[in-house]
Amino acid sequence: FTILSQPVCVACLCTSAGRCIRRQGCRTLQPDCGIRSLTTIAREPAFVASSSVGLHRDSVPRFSLTQLHRPTAAEEQDFQQRLGSCSSYRQVFKLLRSVEILSDTMAAAALHRVADLEQEGTSLKDPTVLEKDTIRALCFQLEQDSGRLTDAGLVSALLACTRLFLDPWSTLMVRLVSESQDRLDRGEMTVGQLCTLGQAMIAIEGPGCVMLEQVMANIQKQAPAQWSLSDLVAVYRLLQGCIGEDGKYRDLLNAMHTHAVKVTSRMDPAAVSVLLSTLVILNQTQAMPLVISLCKQAVQHVPHFTDEELALVVGALIHFGHSDHYFVQAMEKYVPTMAFTSHPETVTKVMQFFGRRNILSPTVFNAVAESFVYRADDYNTSQVARQIMAFGKLGYLPPNAGNMFRKVEIILHTRFSHFQPRTLLNLLHACILVERFPVNFVSKVFSRYFLQQLQEQGTGMDRLILSQLTQLYMTVKLECPFYEGPKLHSKYRVKSFLMSGRSLETPVDTHLYHSVKNGLIGLLGARSYFGSKVLTPYCYTLDVELKLDEEGYVLPASHNGDVYKRIALCIDGQKRFTTNKRQLLGKEAIKQRHLRLLGYEVVQIPYYEFEKLKNMTSVVEYLHQKIFPHTYRLNW
């Protein structure tokens, strides 16, 4: 099975008996003037009819379109299965040489499989694959017989060529596009075929091309409720790339969302991931009923998602701020089985999901911590940081914390210069949240060079970055007294950690605060004996502050003289804990830890204790026991 080194006569045809028949003389084929030179032998024109490509195994690749030897549905299915098992383009070519006859859709599928195996970003791993005899012969015949291809074979071949990054102005591409335009004008393509054509045109000309507008117009001739499930998924996939204007196709999308909710229960893993990723790309915040329905369907598919699909699913749930109890349970069963083998980005996305949703699952976190020790060398710096950030966010230390953070330290030593400034700061800040102190690297972070890099990256120094730097500096001063490195310049320090949006403190729950405040008035006799939302000189804001003299009497909040003891009441609502366990988030744990080191007596008032109190009498008694456990209460 070889390609002739010289162009051959178009009329030199091999019969089944192996004899060469010449008709109408011999004329030389001119090589393609595009990006490749493809030559082949065509069948006798009398045999040319429909949409199959014949392959003569014992000589050169001889592809021609014939209706006489069209493969059966079973043969096509078998070919597709064998194609899917190919792990290199050489295996694909070997498969092509092994079949007797090839339909145009099978030929296009072979090109797609080569693209699957060779695509790497915006280029091919091995560009010379396009110069291989088999692919040149196949492409050449697709070019010569573009007018005889089926609609499905035509648009699939065109899309495959874009995925192989063929020159849009090559003869093959021009002919396929021209023929596709003719078929589009006839208005006979199915919704699925229109979507394939639309994806190809986005790759060639971008989302603003005129032909894509025509494709979308044809798609909308039929209501989404009349589409098949595969067509619905195909249109969602197409819309990922063709909506460039806000609100464009809004009515179509809303109709699709309504129909999709009704058929979610029939969706396979690929469909669920496609729809969720499309909703993220198009920011369809109004489609929460569909998001919730897809999340429920995802529960049964968790063990069957590919790495890429699972990453898209959890990424979408992060984006829309949604989680489902049953989905979490399914993930708890699945993550221990995949933590050591799945793609690093998938494992990282899973950790981000649990971290962002404040879901503390020791099963998941312990499995990922174990895998981190063995796999972290293969992670990029962003993946390392994002995984550790989840541990810091939830304030959780796994059983192998020693080994895990030793691994983090090794990575910091060997790849310090590889970290982006913000990524590094996020990693170091996550460490201090769980009482792991990166003293050896803090001096580098406080250096002028690093701070300048931090300022130049992205949007510069925002309040969150300055807060992280300030808290990192406070931590080494309070908890690492042996630190003798550079200080953080005052211009990089904030006055308060409490701010709108992302903050290093969680604002006090208003309803819970007022309930506690009323109880304190009943306990102390007057509102003047405690301060509320007090900003300390140490950046932390106290929910309630009490001042005591040396004899233990409560001083007025306005008293600024000698104060023997300060009591900080932390009124901890649900948002200060992980959603599924009574564990303080990392940022709340470090706040209480620092307040104690600064001399405050910290009294925690957790919501799950306070909500059990039935009346004011029980509230006052509870507060007395929490704040003054060793004294008798006076009655006012």
Topology overview:
Layout: E1 13-14, E2 20-21, E3 52-54, H1 73-84, H2 89-98, E4 101-103, H3 104-118, E5 119-120, E6 123-124, H4 133-144, H5 151-163, H6 171-186, H7 191-205, H8 210-219, H9 229-242, H10 250-263, H11 269-281, H12 288-301, H13 307-320, H14 325-338, H15 344-356, H16 362-375, H17 381-394, H18 401-415, H19 421-433, H20 439-445, H21 448-456, H22 463-479, H23 510-524, E7 531-535, E8 541-548, E9 554-555, E10 565-572, H24 586-597, E11 601-606, H25 607-610, H26 616-627
Q: Your description of this structure?
A:
- By secondary structure, the protein is α+β, with helices and mostly antiparallel strands.
- Among the domains are: 57-222, no CATH class; 510-628, Endonuclease, Chain A, CATH 3.40.960.
- It is built from 26 helices and 11 strands.
- Strands 7, 8, 9, 10 and 11 form a 5-stranded mixed sheet that branches.
- A hairpin with a 5-residue loop joins strand 7 (531-535) and strand 8 (541-548).
- Helix 2 packs antiparallel against helix 3 (104-118), helix 7 runs antiparallel to helix 8 (210-219) and helix 10 (250-263) runs parallel beside helix 12 (288-301).
- It is elongated.
- It starts with 12 loop residues before the first strand and ends in a 9-residue tail after the last helix.
- The model is unreliable at 1-60 (pLDDT under 50).
